[in-house]
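Notebook entry, cofactor series.
This is the third protein in the set we're modelling with a bound small molecule. For this one the ligand is zinc ion. I'm keeping the input format identical across the series so the outputs can be compared line by line later. Sequence and SMILES below, as received.
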Amino acid sequence: MSVLSERYFRNEQAAYEFVEKQVWPKGPVCPHCHEAGNIRKLNGSSTRMGTYKCYHCLKPFTVKIGTVFEASRLPMHIWLQSIYLVAQSDRIMPAKELEEALGVSAKTAKVLAYRLHKAMYSSIDRVAPESGKAAAPRRKKSDLAHPVYSAKAGRRATSMRDVFLALQPA
Ligand SMILES: [Zn+2]
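Returned structure with ligand:
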């Protein structure tokens, strides 16, 4: 059975729930004012998927704000498929391959490839010292506890989880 048969690769609601769990492991956080307690999910029939309202600053938000998904109209489950494919590939994946694997337009594939590779490689620039004996960048102790540090040091993010860590707002 293909790993792409996971529910969050196929179902938009499940995809949102999966991303929310990655970005907000302790529950939703308002991207506008960083409130974490006074938040409710909006469930009206006309409400866009994954919309929450912060009762501190009174603004609505979704998990997409501040991530690579922001301002994208591509369904979340297609994003997840593309992240999976790019994270699993051991080389830079050409947009053409994403286009064929996902059945999206050439333009969409190009945007996806650009944003995902940028997110993946920047996550490692941030965390992995270059090989060799040159002085590693000074790292704060709090950074060392960050999950990416314990991931295999490499040139790129190695898993979907690494990519999600890179996608999170700073
Ligand atoms: Zn707020």
